[in-house]
Amino acid sequence: MSKPIVAIVGRPNVGKSTLFNRIVGARVAIVEGQPGITRDRLYQEAEWSGRSFMLVDTGGIDFQENDEIVSNVRHQARLAIEEADLVLFVVDARSGLLGSDEEVANILRRTDTPVLLVANKVENFSLEDNPQFLEFYSLGLGEPIPVSAAEGKNTGDLLDQVITLLPLEIKDDYDPDVIKIAVIGRPNVGKSSLVNSILGQERVIVSNVPGTTRDAIDTPFERDDKHYVLIDTAGIRRKSRIYISTEKYSVLRSLKAIDRSDVALIVLDAEEGVTDQDKRIAGYAHEKGKASIIIINKWDLIEKDDHTMSIFTRKIREEMGFITYAPVLFISALTRQRVHRVLELVDYVSEQHSLRIATANLNTLIREALLHNAPPAPKGKRLKIYYATQKSVKPPTYILFVNDPELMHFSYLRYLENQLRLAYGLEGTPIIFKLRRRS
Ligand code: GDP
Ligand code: GDP
């Protein structure tokens, strides 16, 4: 199930990032049980009245191909109507209506995507104090909603309107046994080529009825009586009305595909190595608790000797330290070198993703880990782990009952994680520990 996307659009300085922070609120900066990953400034999960959605500050996206401000705002608006389920168009009630606001409005008026017009910097709700407010009606986007993002005034009402306009969350109607695979990565790394190459293999039988969602083209297929769905984010780009050739653009789409998947194939271009964008995309798969495989494509283009692969692998491990559990596979979608390994690995990591460890075995392992390496004792008080149990799978999530969660140190969790991985593999899957106090 993917979360709806709400995009904030507007020219610089109207208060987009202030509004973003206000809506996202004081959510913890790190993901529970997965320290070391700071949340993204541009895309964050937000919640209101029990509905959650992804909030995107398009102002933080810098469209490199043209750094002129006005055209940047236009790009934001296009991206938003293409990718988002709802647009918050922010204008500045202090400065009043500007030409660039009108340009954006012209774009936003021409779509079916719902738009809320947000007039920010309204601290006092009287027309006397906001003489320019009425100008915004001329944008033809309905009634402007006055808010003060800085002081949090009326933002609750804004959010009430936001959630009434969100589409209902639609559940994927795939059988739970179906392995859902998202092929993610920057443009041109070879995602479509890989998809075609996988589907073109012997023994792979593509179903006649592809599923189509709004965000991706799903290709159900089977191999040896196992059922899979490929969520092809690359394919949809080709049929989209507007195509912005920016790398940032692909992130939103990858995000939605990751949400719906079990296994993420993180595709990198061997010639280009690891870029920041690759890290960001991989970070989402990790954060969302998905099984992952790192695929280095275009391996045919690399001049190699005996060490090339291990040097390359080491580099990836260094650059993407948070996802060292993901197997790395070197392929060529073009020559099909090692493409047959992809589904084998998908099977493998998805088993690991669903692995259950019997409670007795888990507790034996924890006990031994405690004996080998005693927990830290900051200020003389030592962490005690009384009992452990596996709460869920996809990804494997363990609850540790402890005397005091505050005494747990990140490095000790790492140690426990390593012990679990040594004993059970758990390759390709993140694992999560949750701490519960028990006195
Ligand atoms: P962005 O460029 O659209 O992301 O705008 P920012 O969020 O960075 O805000 C631009 C400026 O407007 C900053 O100086 C903010 O402090 C200020 N600002 C943002 N929201 C409000 C508001 O609700 N009221 C007032 N008075 N100032 C605000
Ligand atoms: P996508 O945007 O990630 O879906 O990338 P495409 O599948 O469209 O591939 C982008 C370009 O890279 C195309 O010109 C492909 O022919 C080329 N390409 C894809 N895979 C390989 C590969 O393994 N080796 C080589 N040499 N080229 C490839």
TrEMBL record:
Origin: domain of life: Bacteria
SUPFAM superfamilies: P-loop containing nucleoside triphosphate hydrolases
GO biological process, one term: ribosome biogenesis
CDD domains, sorted: EngA1, EngA2
Stored Gene3D superfamilies: 3.30.300.20, P-loop containing nucleotide triphosphate hydrolases
Keywords annotated in UniProt: GTP-binding, Nucleotide-binding, Repeat, Ribosome biogenesis
GO molecular function, one term: GTP binding
Domain EngA-type G: 4-170, 179-354
Residues binding GTP 1, per UniProt: 10-17, 57-61, 120-123
Record family assignment: Belongs to the TRAFAC class TrmE-Era-EngA-EngB-Septin-like GTPase superfamily. EngA (Der) GTPase family.
PANTHER family according to UniProt: GTPASE DER
Role, per record: GTPase that plays an essential role in the late steps of ribosome biogenesis.
Subunit structure: Associates with the 50S ribosomal subunit.
Name this protein carries in UniProt: GTPase Der
Species for this entry: Desulfofarcimen acetoxidans (strain ATCC 49208 / DSM 771 / KCTC 5769 / VKM B-1644 / 5575)
Lineage, highest ranks first: Bacteria, Bacillati, Bacillota, Clostridia, Eubacteriales
